[in-house]
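User: Just a sanity check before I run the rest of the batch. Below are the structure tokens for the first item. I only need the designed sequence back.
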């Protein structure tokens, strides 16, 4: 920012994890646009990478490195759009705010978006926001779908804690907590909570059916028919798990903990559950139903406190959504723009909860790359051409919304 002559501010709850805010002033006739991305990334297992995971290596037409999909691509596109706007010298109808946020992936102490929303909201308050949470589908060299994140599932976590009598491993015990926990995890793993479509997911499947090959179109239309939806869900669970997750509140066991030695029966065993609730899900009722499914007094459900709020979906009848749709059609002729519910979580939840309609964007990626090299995968990579095109996509959206007409 200093090199471009743009004043900026930093706000830090933790001095090692500061958030940066910069603002280009408009004439004030419209409320600001906030463009943001997070600077943190998830951990890596270096032995699984063919290149330095933090080297941003450019090889074979790809950029390789942790964060290329989550979230350095958005950080680059938002930052470049901001800098290009400053260089253009254009008169603006509204302020343009850039936020580089430091704690999206894991923020137990609230150093990132929670800190900014709770302590410095005036610095980032806006009419609209754009950030991560969307994507574009690349097929045979062309973009067919521009997917815009307009709502997201609500992350909730819980522990299953089984208790029993400790003892020597040579003497089997009926109340062995490892056995009780294993049975409970198996029941949770096969439990299928009720399917529910909201406005976003119903619109998503209706539009997706209209552009999909006949076999896929038939499956997506079946989801809209209560009489046919049940029979197609097993196929989706096995072949399109991301689609399947959009249909219901999901529960995934992710961690197990028990025992201190191979010949010791522990008195306690626990499993961690990653729960992604549909918007509007009554989580207390959900835990009650989970308890009935487990049906074992030796196993207790212990909710883990969450700081991430549930928030309303961002509307589709706004200037921002219409602009995203128009830019998508101009840049990718023949493509369809779809509102989508993310199964993951983002900073948009906190912004939406504060009344800022927020929209998730992302670069064009093939299904193969998404599955093998996507966010949080062992290895991340992004086509160089997709990054350059995404910067252009972001710039076109931002310039259309903020430059004085």
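Assistant: Here's the designed sequence for the first item:
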């Amino acid at each position: 920012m200093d090199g471009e002559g743009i004043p900026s501010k930093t706000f830090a709850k933790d001095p090692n994890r500061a958030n940066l805010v910069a603002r280009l002033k408009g004439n004030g006739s419209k409320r600001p646009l906030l463009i943001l991305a997070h600077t943190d990334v998830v951990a890596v297992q270096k032995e699984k990478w063919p290149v330095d995971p933090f080297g941003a290596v450019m090889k074979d037409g790809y950029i390789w490195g942790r964060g290329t999909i989550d979230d350095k691509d958005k950080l680059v596109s938002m930052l470049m759009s901001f800098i290009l706007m400053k260089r253009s010298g254009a008169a603006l109808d509204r302020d343009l705010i850039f936020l580089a946020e430091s704690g999206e992936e894991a923020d137990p102490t609230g150093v990132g978006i929670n800190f900014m929303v709770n302590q410095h909201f005036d610095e980032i308050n806006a009419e609209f926001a754009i950030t991560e949470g969307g994507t574009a589908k690349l097929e045979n060299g062309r973009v067919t779908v521009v997917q815009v994140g307009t709502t997201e599932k609500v992350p909730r976590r819980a522990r299953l804690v089984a208790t029993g009598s400790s003892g020597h491993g040579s003497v089997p015990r009926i109340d062995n907590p490892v056995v009780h926990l294993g049975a409970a995890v198996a029941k949770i793993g096969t439990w299928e909570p009720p399917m529910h479509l909201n406005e976003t997911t119903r619109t998503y499947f209706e539009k997706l059916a209209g552009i999909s090959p006949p076999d896929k179109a038939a499956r997506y239309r079946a989801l809209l028919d209560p009489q046919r939806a049940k029979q197609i869900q097993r196929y989706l669970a096995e072949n399109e798990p991301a689609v399947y997750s959009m249909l219901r509140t999901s529960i995934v066991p992710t961690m197990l903990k028990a025992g201190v030695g191979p010949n010791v029966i522990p008195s306690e065993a626990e499993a961690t559950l990653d729960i992604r609730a549909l918007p509007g899900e009554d989580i207390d009722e959900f835990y009650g139903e989970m308890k009935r499914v487990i049906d074992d007094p030796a196993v207790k459900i212990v909710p883990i406190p969450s700081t991430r709020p549930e928030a309303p979906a961002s509307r589709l009848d706004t200037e921002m959504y219409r602009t995203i749709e128009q830019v998508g059609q101009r840049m990718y002729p023949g493509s369809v723009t779809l509102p989508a519910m993310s199964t993951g979580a983002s900073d948009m939840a906190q912004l939406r909860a504060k009344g800022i309609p927020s929209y998730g964007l992302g670069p064009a990626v093939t299904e193969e790359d998404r599955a093998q090299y996507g966010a949080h995968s062992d290895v991340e990579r992004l086509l160089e051409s997709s990054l350059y095109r995404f910067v252009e996509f972001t710039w076109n959206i931002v310039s259309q919304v903020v430059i004085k007409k």
